[in-house]
Write a structure and sequence with these properties.
Shape: globular
Strand content: 5-15%
Order of helices and strands: EEHEHEHEHEHEHEHHHE
Strand order of the largest sheet: 5-4-3-6-7-8-9
Distance between the termini: 45 Å
CATH topology of the largest domain: Rossmann fold
Largest sheet: 7 strands, parallel
Structural class: alpha/beta
Number of domains: 2
CATH superfamily of the largest domain: NAD(P)-binding Rossmann-like Domain
Radius of gyration: 22 Å
CATH class of the largest domain: Alpha Beta
CATH architecture of the largest domain: 3-Layer(aba) Sandwich
């Protein structure tokens, strides 16, 4: 027996072989001698409910069943897309990432491969272009050996009040936000069906549940993606293809920095004041991290979410106050 961190007691479950630190009580241990007494070097697993209250020791893996699965993650050279690709690769999935900046994409792929030792393929593509989408899906399927998971994701559209936006702004946003999901889904569904099922996970925004001032393009078109996703969830369920949306709230990404700067410019104030104002609206009192978002996507990609389809799951620290 040992005393876990926080004063609780229980049977030790394992010891980290690299640091030789007891995973329950966090006591540094030596390889031999009396210091080991009361601690186990074995792998006996005993649940300590609730586990997250017992230990504050982050795990590198979720221990899902994504080993050997093949995924496409869009807009993955940075931010939420890169974090999602990193999380899927860490779980053992082979990942094809895309983005418009080939150099940034190659750097992201190298970083993900270095951290996870996973199979990562970088395919430069602009998902607002139909030809690029066809090439992306074709190359990803050929190089990975198939497609099991599609994560659609795009950078946010131009911000600004309704009357400042032109038809060209709307056309560009429609191609980027809505038609990209239509085309990617259409291209990937045959591959998912051939594998006996799979996942389509669309990254949207909390704006689909609570419109955000100054983001009329995002408010309108991400809501359209949500309607599309809910329809596809019904149509594709007989094929074992589950379709869900994940709606990030305010997260520490370059996009949020850009929005804060734009809001500060409109209001004649400082971006830091804009961020503090945002944080005051979030019950958890902080911005999220890309990694927290990526873990939710990874869960939905796994069989642990095998009875979940047609939903929008927000990752927002409580920002959206609606019941549904």
């Amino acid at each position: 027996m040992c005393t876990p961190a926080g004063g609780r007691t229980g049977i030790v479950t394992s010891t980290d072989p690299e640091t030789h630190t007891c995973c329950v009580c966090l006591t540094p241990l030596t390889l031999s001698g009396d210091a080991r007494e009361g601690h186990s070097w074995g792998t006996l697993v005993i649940e300590y409910p609730p586990a997250w209250e017992l230990l504050d020791v982050p795990s590198d893996r979720m221990h899902s069943d994504l080993e050997g699965k093949c995924a496409i993650v869009c807009a993955a050279s940075r931010g939420l897309g890169k974090a999602t690709a990193m999380a899927l690769a860490r779980e053992g999935a082979s990942v094809a990432i895309c983005g418009r900046d080939a150099a940034a994409l190659d750097a992201a792929a190298a970083d993900i491969a270095r951290v996870t030792s996973g199979d990562v393929v970088a395919i430069a593509a602009d998902v607002s272009r139909a030809d690029d989408i066809d090439r992306l899906v074709r190359d990803a399927a050929a190089r990975l050996g198939g497609i099991d998971v599609l994560v659609t994701n795009t950078g946010g559209p131009k911000s600004g009040p309704f009357e400042t936006l032109s038809d060209d702004d709307w056309r560009g946003a429609i191609d980027s936000l809505l038609l990209s999901v239509v085309r990617l889904s259409r291209a990937c569904v045959p591959h998912l069906r051939a594998r006996g099922g799979g996942r389509i996970i669309n990254v949207t925004s909390v704006s689909v549940k609570q419109p955000i001032d100054g983001l009329v393009l995002s408010n309108a078109l991400r809501a359209a993606v949500t309607g599309l996703s809910r329809t596809l969830a019904n149509e594709l369920a007989p094929d074992g293809i589950l379709v869900n949306c994940v709606a990030p709230g305010y997260t520490r990404t370059a996009r949020v920095v850009e929005l804060n700067e734009a809001a500060a410019a409109r209001e004649g104030t400082h971006p830091d004041l804009i961020q503090r104002r945002l944080e005051e609206k979030i019950p958890l009192g902080r911005l999220g991290t890309p990694e927290e978002f990526a873990d939710v996507v990874t869960f939905l990609a796994s069989s642990r979410a095998g009875y979940v389809t047609g939903i929008t799951l927000q990752v927002d620290g409580g920002f959206v106050r609606s019941l549904l």
